Every structure is written in structure tokens, then in C-alpha cells.
Amino acid sequence: MGRPAEALPAEQEAVAIYRELAQAYPDRYRGDLAASLSNLGNRFSELGCLADALAAAQEAVAIYRELAQAYPDRYRPDLARSLSSLGVRFSKLGRPVEALPAEQEAVAIRRELAEVYPDRYRPELAVSLSFLGMLLSELGHSAEAARMRREAERIKDDYSNT
């Protein structure tokens, strides 16, 4: 509803509850904790609390990384999404050098997922490629940035023609 300040306490409470549940039942609730942390990061970002948003995103990535290692089929898409979010958080803080590896990893995961499930993951790959291109351009890697943007456009064109 566009009222992140009102949503923030509920997001914080959800994180606190999932922390307790994940501590007691890690196999069942760590994924929910990571998702809740991602949501909390989004609320912080909407409120301009960028350092808090970054901390929540970093914690979500750490949890999803562990989960994806144990259960790759279930959590790799979530890891890619949270890595991309982490890249955005770094970028908004004016730290593109730190955003770059997160987005590169997100692209790598999404490439693999798109090969197996193209209809489901190619659109997400296109978004990651576009953002990666922006980061590369910002860092002065214009040729590589252009290559990423062209690939993203090809994927988008493929979907607009179907």
C-alpha cells in the first residue's frame, strides 16, 4: 500500500519470530527467516535506511548460501534473488565495486537455471544482465557492459516475440 514506515514494525517482528523458530527448528524455518530478512531489507531501503537494508540483505544471502549448498534445487533461485538484491543495496550506497561480485554470481546462477527452465528463469536472467551491465559501465568496463546489455535485450526480444 506504499506505507513502508507502517510495515517496518511488522517486518521486524516477523524476523524476530523466525529467528526464534529457526533456532529451534533450523531445517524448517531458516528459509522463512531469510525471506523475512529480504523483506525487511526492502522496507529499510524504501525508508532510505540503506545501511540497515544492506545488513539485512547480507544476512539473507548468508542463510540462502548455506541452504542452497544443502538443497540446491530448492534454494538456488532464492540465493540468486538475494544476491541481486545485495548488489542493489551496495549500488545504492555508492559501492559498485562490492555490488559487482554479488551480481556476477546472481547472473551465473540464473544462467544455469535458465538453461534448465528457460521459461521460468530467462526473464530474471535478463534483469540481472541489465543490472550487471549498468555496474560494469559505472566501473568503466564499457565493452563488457554493452555485451551484457545486448544479451539482456536479446532475451527480452525473445519473450516479446512469443
Poorly predicted spans? none
Q: What value does the average pLDDT take?
A: 95
| Largest sheet descriptor | none
Structural category: mainly alpha
Distance between the termini: 33 Å
User: For this entry, what is the oligomeric state of its chains?
Assistant: single chain
Overall helicity: over 70%
Tally of contiguous helical segments? 7
Instruction: From the alpha carbons, calculate the radius of gyration and give it in angstroms.
Output: 17 Å
Shape: globular
Quick one: how many beta strands? Answer: 0
**Residue fraction in strands:** under 5%
N to C succession of SSEs: HHHHHHH
Spell out the blueprint of helices and strands.
Blueprint: H1 4-24, H2 26-46, H3 50-70, H4 72-92, H5 96-116, H6 118-138, H7 142-160
Description of the molecule:
The chain is an all-alpha fold and 162 residues long. Helices cover 90% and strands 0% of the residues. It contains seven helices and no strands. Helix 5 (96-116) runs antiparallel to helix 6 (118-138). It is globular. The model has no long low-confidence stretch (mean pLDDT 95).
Descriptive labels:
162 residues, mainly alpha, globular
Short description:
It contains 7 helices and no strands.
